[in-house]
Amino acid sequence: MPAGHVVSTLANRSAPALGPISREKTARLVSRALGVTPDVLDAGFRAATLADLPAVLALRRRVLGDALTWDDERYVRWRYLPEPGERSLATCWLCTRGDELLGMIGTEALCLQAGDLRQQVHAAMDLMVQPEWAGSGLGVWVNQTVCERLGCVLAIGSNPNSKGVLARTFEALPARRTHTHPLHFAHFMAKRLPHGLLAGVAAGLADAAMVVLRVGRLWSTGWRLSVTQLAQWAPGTPEHSDIETLLQAAQRSDRVEVDRDAATLAHRLLANPRTRCEVWLARDGARPVGMVATRSVPIEGGRHAVQVLDAVIDPACQRPALRALLARVTARAFRRGADYLTWTLYDPALEAELKPLMFRTMPHTYETMSWVCPDAAFREAVLARAGWSLSDIHTDRDSA
């Protein structure tokens, strides 16, 4: 639920101490505001079909406004509403009143593994309501209805509006953490040193020092591994087999694992119409030991950064694989003028590898995770684990 999305602000207008509100009470409040009965409100909540595409696109144009800078029809088809026979990632749920579209939410089915237990979980995203109904509680009701119909629902990330909505519906999980590695210091020095020449010299020295550090700590450790860029991995190819092998080898019992397969990963990383990804595969001889996917993201002042979207690392080769991949990624990002490399995750074992590499942990109020899980045994198994293999490809922050 990125910051550009509009959700109901009912929770924001109420004191946080009030705690969760029941779906029945929310339904009464919302149906009264809409002039319908709770039964009619419930009957109007349904999965979208291809015939709903024009209304969905119109809602997204209203909500996103000037932030909508991509081909949204192509994107919505890719994520939610493909042509029959084509792959989709998620389901688009609609809240309707007759023929009128009032709001939408997306859910993506993920299979989670926690020890010996497996559970299908639905990741919620793209919560939007018509601007005139913000404040009616509709966003809260949509979240609650998704939870009632689907059971176990996960919310990744929040924003100033949705954080209150989530507090009314979901149980908090440990937040993800953002780690940042500097590449170029020109902007940093220019903000802190008043003299332009002095700032330029200081930035050059800092850039050179970081290059030396990366050579010493990344290249010296991962030099024996080969790293290649992958443009595709179609079924039946050696690359496809390598990705499948790596996904199996990377699973760990000490964290919550999100099931993935090579075909779905290719669709996410290589077919997304809103973002262009680069994928790097590390091998130790013929054995795949790590994969990292990155993208360039714009930042203020016409500058850009590089974001790690996904990483799959074999724990038997964790340090050399991670360092070999980061060596290649940081070198490429440095040559292209990126200010920094950023990676958001919740995986203490991997995060411990980043600190010696001069990654700084940056607090982020909205990198939250929360969920509703009616399965008590699975809930306890998840809470007993430190770390998730969840990554930014599982969010709706697709723009670049």
From TrEMBL:
InterPro entries: Acyl_CoA_acyltransferase
Name this polypeptide is given: Acetyltransferase (GNAT) family protein
UniProt source species: Aquabacterium commune
